[in-house]
Specification:
globular; 6-stranded mixed sheet; alpha+beta; two-stranded antiparallel sheet; 10 strands; 23% strand
Length: 238
């Protein structure tokens, strides 16, 4: 069971003497402790841990609404996108930021078909941004919107190739131990560290984390192992 589930963090929040801010800080520390257990010297992982179970607050197209914003809210659970499937999730610090926009997302978009041909059902790009920001970023990136097909839980209204997954409340990111705060650096606040992983039926098959560990207020933004080329090399070497 992930550290932020079950009796761990929720039990902390039930005590009157622990305020919400302290509870969040404890949750972050517990998640980071879980992540450190997974680290090896190659900054690549093969483990049998389940991924975090959360509900993502998403927006899907509903043309019956009409107008300029024909979208409605939809709750999408971790199980909806990962159960019984082999998927890629890559996470990055923020929509519209330089490396994320110039290389990270475009790389997976470019290699989308090749990665799927290597035995992957779907590719998701996760960021601690809300659904509105993620949609506008995808459109700005030139990703082709899926307007009709609802076979993926994020569609219609997400994208045909890489699906953009909003972790606006940082729940998945904290639970995975990948939360980092940039306040004196960049002024981002709480975001996701950069990483990528193969999830096979809810279990982490392979995890690549930049720099080998989450770094709070990091000056550098390393981008060496979570890219699409590294992922494709791993998938085709099996």
């Amino acid at each position: 069971m992930p550290l932020s589930q079950g009796a761990n963090v929720p039990s902390v929040r039930r005590h009157d003497h622990v305020d919400e801010k302290m509870a969040i800080e404890i949750e972050i520390l517990l998640g980071q402790a879980r992540a450190r257990v997974l680290i090896n010297t190659q900054c690549a992982y093969k483990v049998e841990h389940s991924i975090e179970l959360v509900t993502f607050k998403c927006r899907v197209r509903d043309d019956s609404i009409g107008g300029e914003n024909p979208f409605t809210w939809k709750d999408v659970k971790t199980e909806d996108i990962c159960k019984g499937k082999r998927v890629i999730i890559f996470a990055l610090p923020g929509a519209f930021t330089p490396t994320c926009s110039s290389t990270h997302l475009p790389g997976y978009e470019k290699h989308y078909d090749a990665i799927k041909a290597a035995g992957v059902d779907e590719i998701y790009c996760l960021s601690v941004n809300d659904a509105f920001v993620m949609r506008q970023w995808g459109l700005k990136q030139g990703c082709e919107e899926e307007t009709k097909d609802a076979s993926n839980p994020l569609n219609p209204g997400n994208f045909k190739k890489v699906k953009l997954l909003p972790d606006g409340a940082c729940l998945f990111t904290r639970g995975m131990g990948m939360s980092c705060t940039w306040d004196s650096e960049r002024g981002f606040g709480e975001r996701s560290w950069r990483y990528s992983m193969v999830v096979n039926d809810m279990k982490i098959e392979k995890l690549f984390i930049e720099g080998g560990a989450v770094v709070q207020n990091s000056g550098p933004d390393p981008f060496e192992v979570s890219d699409a080329d590294t992922m494709l090399k791993y998938l085709t070497s099996k």
